[in-house]
Amino acid sequence: MATQEEIEQHYDIDNEFYALILDDKYLGYTCGVWDKAENIEQSQADKFARLCRYAHVKSNSKVLDVGCGWGGLSTYIGESFSNTKVHGLTLSTKQLEFIKNANNPIATVELSAWQNFTPPEPKFDAVISIGCLEHFATYEDSISGKQREIYKNFFDWCLSVTTPEAYVGLQTIIITRLPSNISELRDSWLVHKIFPGSALASISDIQEAVIDKYEISEVSRIGHDYVPTLQAWIDKMVLNKDELFSRYGEELYNQYTEYFEGAKRCFETGYFDLYQVSLKRAQPTRIFKT
Q1: Distance (Å, rounded) from C-alpha 43 to C-alpha 228?
Q2: 27, 117, 121, 133: which could form a disulfide with 172 (CB 3.0–4.6 Å)?
Q3: Residue 64 phi/psi, 5° resolution?
Q4: Is 122 in contact with 143 (CB distance < 8 Å)?
Q5: How many CB atoms lie within 10 A of CB 264?
Q6: Could you tell me the mean pLDDT of each successive run of 10 residues in the chain, 290 residues long?
């Protein structure tokens, strides 16, 4: 798994840096849903709406947000459901400070990896994880075949921290195949460079990891939606180019522009894809003789 130092290398540049790139309301740093959205903010709200539906979030729910970012999910839930609480986990000190300073009455947050988190009673009614699974296994884990055991451990942990009726709403980038040319290999390298200690799962990794733990209830495959999401971030970077240059320098600006453009090509070609999944706790289906 990516260490706290590796997570902070990317996410702790500065909260204001990301505010100059991401949407103004949610600071959503993952793919939005563009079925009906006409702008980046609405696409983020539509993403949260679908994942809340997938996780069966209701009024009075207690929700665990694994990899909570800057708290966009808790902002959305606070506007959409009554008497609901959201507890976020992050390894970014800057994100932790941002959420605490936001004073969202339904949101709590702590600096913790999921492996180190022991929930208070009562257990959670839903788990939502958006763009966090990508950080659970390192490139070295994937090369050595250890990634599936890591994902299995995560889903076991989800079972342990939730009520028997709880669902999991998961959004994660998937790698679909080996690179087919040098350009795809380079773009993949750019993504790994910008996110040290992280690697993408395959869909079969996820399918195997949930066997006898969760059944897949609903799925949306929306890798194409990352293209307008990334383009919206690029457009806002261009809009704020002078301020980004003056505050953070040309090198960092160019690094992120190159990263966003490379990632966009990966989704355009289908080399990367993105899945949103609703997971329902599996029930025993076999009777064995003793």
Answers
A1: 10
A2: 133
A3: -105, 125
A4: no
A5: 20
A6: 74 91 97 97 98 98 97 98 97 96 95 92 96 92 92 97 97 88 74 77 96 96 98 98 96 93 93 97 71
CB neighbours of residue 93 within 10 Å: 14
How far is residue 278's CA from residue 129's CA, in Å, rounded to a whole number? 11
**What is the CB neighbour count within 10 angstroms for residue 112?**
16
Decide: helix, strand or coil at residue 207. helix
Of the candidates 126, 129, 73, 60, the one whose C-alpha atom is nearest the C-alpha of residue 99 is 73
Phi and psi torsions of 193, nearest 5°: -65, -40
d(CA 27, CA 68): 11
DSSP 84: -
Q: How many CB atoms lie within 10 A of CB 176?
A: 14
Which residue, 62, 186, 51, is CA-closest to 131? 51
Residue-by-residue DSSP string for 239-278: HTHHHHHHHH-HHHHHHHHHHHHHHHHHHHTTSEEEEEEE
Residue written as token pair 């195997």: 208
One DSSP character per residue, 138-198 reads -HHHHHTT-HHHHHHHHHHHHHHTEEEEEEEEEEEEEE-S---SHHHHHHHHHHHHHSTT-
* C-alpha–C-alpha distance, residues 115 and 153, integer Å: 9
